[in-house]
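This part of the workshop introduces the protein records we will be handling. A record pairs a protein's sequence with a compact description of its fold. Backbone structure tokens are a discrete shorthand for how the chain folds in space. The question running through the whole workshop is how a given chain folds. The record below serves as our worked example for the rest of this section.
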Amino acid sequence: MDTAITKRVEQITIEDSYSRINIRANVKQAILDMTSEEEVIYDIFAATQSAILGYLTGDYYESKNKRIAHIMDITSEDLALEVMIAVLPVTRKSPVQSIATRLANQLGYDNVFDGVRTAAELLGACAKTGLYQVWLNPITIQATVSLPADAMTYIEKTQYMNPMVCQPVNWTDNNNGGYISVCQSVILGKHNRHDKKQAVDALNIAQSVEWELDMQMVNYIEKPKNACTTKQQIDGHIRQTNSALDVYQDLVDQGNSFYFVWRFDFRGRMYNSGYYVSIQSTDYKKSILNFAKKQVING
């Protein structure tokens, strides 16, 4: 089979592995696989599902009923899994708004405020399930339970799509381009989308650049930005490190040749997709990247 076709098939398989259906199924299995000594998290999962079902079947004022109707086609089990996926990695006291925003991204609302409002209500409905502890003034939350290390690393890793192992699809308009099977707008943020003309040729040029990992730099481990003073914070940093190392190994196994998908924000600034591998991240993450095709420039 032609190499380009092989890489394209490989990329489609990778994108499928990052689908929400696949992620929820893996997290659910991790919960079901817990031993009897650790079954408290299964009880929390059941309580979370029950709390969400109560939230969904409540009778509220007209606009809230209409807003909740938008997620009625998502099962209470899937919503419970999404809540747990959003909360479990929170190893430090974190503003509830940030967790609500993360959860809102999986609810499918076109209006960002409706999404965040609903996500916050879902989190509030789960306040007495034992999933998290809450502090007031300001409102912050922190997970009180955790899955096994490999499952937590999986959750961390699958929060963000990897760079592509083949060249991204050229953007032809505001809704077509980037990943092969993942439909995205060329503009970041659902509430920012529009059909006005964008300079997609600039994105396509950036997407044509081939990158590789600098293996010498990858051998150094990135230090946490903030001091880890509790076991939960140390475990969280270890999970993030392991997730990054998994991503690096995946890219090496796939030939250490990859491309970034590029999109605009609402101001027209260009951003590459990625977290553990990104040219717009920390100094460390910038240092592990090289151009795959090098050329000597004579002065």
Q: What stands out?
A: The beta strands are 94-95, 132-135, 140-143, 169-173, 176-178, 211-213, 262-264, 270-272, 289-291.
